[in-house]
Design goal:
- The protein has about 230 residues and is an alpha/beta fold.
- About 45% of the residues lie in helices and about 20% in strands.
- The strands form 3 sheets. Strands 2-1-3-4-5 form a 5-stranded parallel beta sheet, sandwiched between helices. Strands 6-7-8-9 form a 4-stranded antiparallel beta sheet.
- Helix 7 crosses helix 9 and helix 8 (about 175-185) packs across helix 9 (about 190-205).
- The longest helix has 15 residues, at about 190-205.
- The chain is elongated and about 70 Å long.
- The model is unreliable at about 125-130 (pLDDT under 50).
- Bound molecules: calcium ion (CA).
- Calcium ion (CA) binds near residues 11 and 54.
């Protein structure tokens, strides 16, 4: 498993160093930033998996920087945990309204901070591991969603399983019998021409975005999934 990268945006050096030390010891890769300018440069250089954001920063506030990150399509998926001395209800609401995924009130124990980080991270880890891509076609097996660029592709359950199998086993020819066995399951009795019916539906669903050509008919053999048009 690759090390998760956490950006710590905090102008108070003692707190920044304490947090970085604790996160490093917990196995995270840590990038420190003392203000919003440094934070932006760090994000542009290497995308973090999570941002710990102090509220009060010397240039723009952590709240404003969070808003900016959440407005930008490139960074809006990165979870942000606000670090704040403000425990007031209004401020917490403002933080969450600004797009923060969670907040931790200072002073906090390292253990509490680590627990919040773990809670915010797994969603991303699970999602990352479940996504398979072929060209611009993307299948997310956590949410069962298929998309081509920004376009959602609607599939029936069998077409979805068929596509997932193909995307996980590209560039290999599978006979109808093999597809029945691998996609429908060996114990189900289904005629081989059923495969053709679902292939046809799958191609039809992929036609608007041009991905139908990824599913090739191999004469006398079966089907093969390959990226490209040749
Ligand atoms: Ca501060």
């Amino acid at each position: 498993m690759t090390q998760r990268r956490i950006l710590v945006v905090e102008d108070e050096r003692a707190i920044r160093e304490m947090v970085c030390f604790n996160l490093g010891r917990a196995g995270y890769h840590v990038s420190p930033a003392a203000d919003a300018r440094e934070a932006r440069a760090s994000i542009a250089d290497q995308r973090p998996d999570l941002v710990l954001m102090d509220w009060m920063l010397p240039d723009i506030s952590g709240l404003e920087l969070t808003r900016q990150l959440k407005r930008d399509p490139e960074t809006k998926e990165i979870p942000v945990i606000m670090l704040t001395a403000r425990g007031e209800e209004d401020d917490r609401v403002a933080g969450l309204d600004g797009g923060a995924d969670d907040y931790v009130v200072k002073p906090f124990a390292a253990r509490e901070l680590l627990a919040r980080i773990r809670a915010a991270l797994p969603r991303r880890e699970a999602a990352d591991a479940e996504v398979v891509s072929a060209g611009t076609l993307k299948l997310d097996s956590a949410s069962h969603q298929v998309s081509a660029g920004s376009v959602e592709v609607g599939l029936g359950p069998t077409e979805y399983r068929l596509l997932e199998f193909f995307m996980r086993h590209p560039d290999r020819v599978y006979s109808r019998a093999q597809l029945l066995d691998r996609v429908w399951g060996g114990n189900v009795y289904v005629e081989e021409r059923t495969v053709d019916v679902h292939i046809r539906r799958l191609r039809k669903a992929l036609t608007p975005t041009g991905h139908h050509s990824f599913i090739r008919t191999v004469r006398g053999a079966g089907y093969r999934f390959s990226v490209g048009t040749s």
